Amino acid sequence: MSETSNRDTTPGPAVSASDVATIGSRFLRYLPFITIAHFLIGLPALIASLALAYFAFVQADATQKMQSGGVMPFVTFGTSNGDKEGNQDIALTLTNNGVGPAILGPIEIRYEGKPVNTPIDLLEACCTDTGARPLRFSTSPSTGIAVRPGETIEFVSFPRTPASEQIWQTFNKERWKLQVRACYCSIFNDCWLTEGMQGLPKAVNKCPANWSLYREDAGNRIAGVDVK
Q1: CA distance 72 to 78
Q2: Taking a C-beta distance cutoff of 8 angstroms, is the pair 89, 157 a contact?
Q3: Is the pTM of this model over 0.90?
């Protein structure tokens, strides 16, 4: 029978506090370099992610602008004293020269700085002291309607007749003093203000609500005829 001799085992040397402090100080010394290395490793992926996000934003913005531009209306005010048929009618018009439909909002008309609210008020302010109700003229809605591209809305049409000759002559001169501004929107609810006959439209968030509104006065579309 063989016997295994017992060997005395001695514990290893204990780690002193000074060794722990040395290791800790070395780790802290290299910690910034380790952090920078991790950052440099992940930097390309971060740049690629930011670039993809930017290109996606640019593409979405370009797509939105293309959609908006493809249906952008362009409404202008105009006035004339004759039509293609040779009728001598003084007309106040709004024309959509854009590529998309226009939703007409409020319209304001001023004569010599003072607002006029109806066609009758307009003629009485500029052209007659005896009243405009006996005169016959036609109007059409100018607010809350859609105007197709290339379409013209005559919101006031004043024909030349023997009975209206004097007022017609006066109105033919005074119509150039009118200050007309209108608000309109696209089908995407982008809105613009147009003022006068030659001004470029100004983009706005929404149509103003503080204008002195001009209205058709449909109950007196034919002036002097009472509608009951």
Answers
A1: 19
A2: yes
A3: no
